[in-house]
Design a protein that fits this description.
10 strands; about 25% strand; alpha/beta; Rossmann fold
């Protein structure tokens, strides 16, 4: 039995991941922060609370075999949502031998090893967005830093702007797409779940781009 702990399940991307996991027959333990994710559904357990609470995160992981986080700090009163989640998730996952985790962040976030490297499209996107949402980008970078320091089988999908109604296929790439690129939520959710189970990009932070 596959049990997925899902963080961010009420968001625009997270709700689509939730639906696809249910369609696959997965058992889901989903963190509900502000409201219920959905009505009562078979094989779904809702844990109510906040990622900043270590006890809530530990409860969320009860019986889990994999973790998915589509969290983001946009609209949050605190700008450390992703990194705080990792600080609470990683010790519990390590203690309980839960190794697989897939997370998301924006395509402007860079890994430490990429500092100083020349990626024209990512550099352009980062320069544009750092003027308006630096705390979000830095939180995404810190959460990847924490994953890199762990022994987990982690993958972080770096995402461009997403919109509903777009149906173009998505693939994962080691190079960033153009700054104006947009992808559809449904296609990204599908690719995220594919990566969760195929584990082709373990220990990496590929960019989601149009296929």
């Amino acid at each position: 039995m596959t049990v997925i702990a899902l963080l961010g399940g009420s968001g625009r991307l997270g709700c689509r991941v939730y639906d696809r996991l249910r369609a696959r027959g997965c058992h889901i333990r989903v963190l509900a922060h502000k409201s219920r994710i959905a009505g009562d559904a078979p094989h779904v357990t809702q844990v109510h609370g906040d990622v900043h609470d270590p006890a809530i995160v530990a409860e969320l992981l009860d019986g889990a075999s994999m973790v998915v986080s589509t969290l983001g700090a946009a609209g949050s009163p605190t700008m450390d949502v992703c990194s705080a989640a990792m600080r609470n998730l990683i010790p519990v996952m390590t203690e309980r031998s839960i190794t697989r985790i897939v997370t998301t962040t924006g395509s402007a976030a860079r890994l430490d090893l990429e500092v100083g490297q020349k990626d024209g499209w990512q550099a352009a996107r980062r320069a544009m967005l750092m003027r308006h949402m630096a705390p979000l980008i830095l939180d995404g970078e810190e959460h990847m830093r924490l994953l890199q320091q762990s022994a987990l089988d982690w993958t972080t999908l770096r995402l461009p702007i997403m919109r509903g109604g777009l149906s173009d296929a998505v693939k994962l790439s080691d190079t960033c797409g153009p700054p104006e690129a947009t992808l559809g939520y449904d296609a990204v959710a599908q690719e995220l779940i594919r990566e969760l189970f195929s584990a082709r990009w373990v220990g990496a932070a590929p960019f989601a781009v149009e296929a």
